[in-house]
Amino acid sequence: MSSTIPIHPLELEGGLASLSSIAAIEVDALLRGQTTDFMAAKRVSDELSLFAKSRNPASLAVMNLALSDSPFGKTVRQRVDQVVREAENIRERICHLVDDPSSFRMDHNDELVDLGVFLLALSKRAAAFDRPFEQTEPDNPVRR
């Protein structure tokens, strides 16, 4: 039974953590035989493209941690260009997924599972980084 997963447009307005989480839901829906428009996955692909061009140090840290938390983290990346190259490879996989989801599912089912795990890892790492540093410690009234 195939059904479409509805995603409200406002949900796509969030940051990378939100987009990655929604993209992981889209991948999961495809794995369960449901259809989706992969709008969040497209946006994550765009974000990965920007990441490859900017090489922002904070983004590099988030990406490296997300890669390490995912099945794509089997190799040790010691240089910036290795992190960027792996992010570009994942972006290309997402583009192939978005272009032809049913074919991608049939031909690369294991890779589809890995992409879902990566997207969840990216969401987790991006969410942790988005938190302001002032909020890392609880407010202690005794210290006032």
Number of domains: 1
Overall shape: it is globular
Low-pLDDT parts are 5-12, 132-136
List the secondary-structure elements in sequence, H or E.
HHHHHH
Fraction of residues in H or I helices: 55-70%
Radius of gyration: 17 Å
The average pLDDT value, as a whole number, equals: 83
Give the strand tally: 0
Write the layout of secondary structure elements.
Layout: H1 16-31, H2 39-54, H3 57-68, H4 80-99, H5 101-107, H6 109-130
Short summary:
The protein has 144 residues and is an all-alpha fold. Helix content is 65%, strand content 0%.
Could you explain the architecture of this structure?
This protein has 144 residues and is mainly α. It has one domain. 65% of the residues lie in helices and 0% in strands. The longest helix is centred in the last third of the chain and has 22 residues. About 9% of the residues have low confidence.
Keywords:
mainly alpha, 65% helix, 144 residues, 6 helices
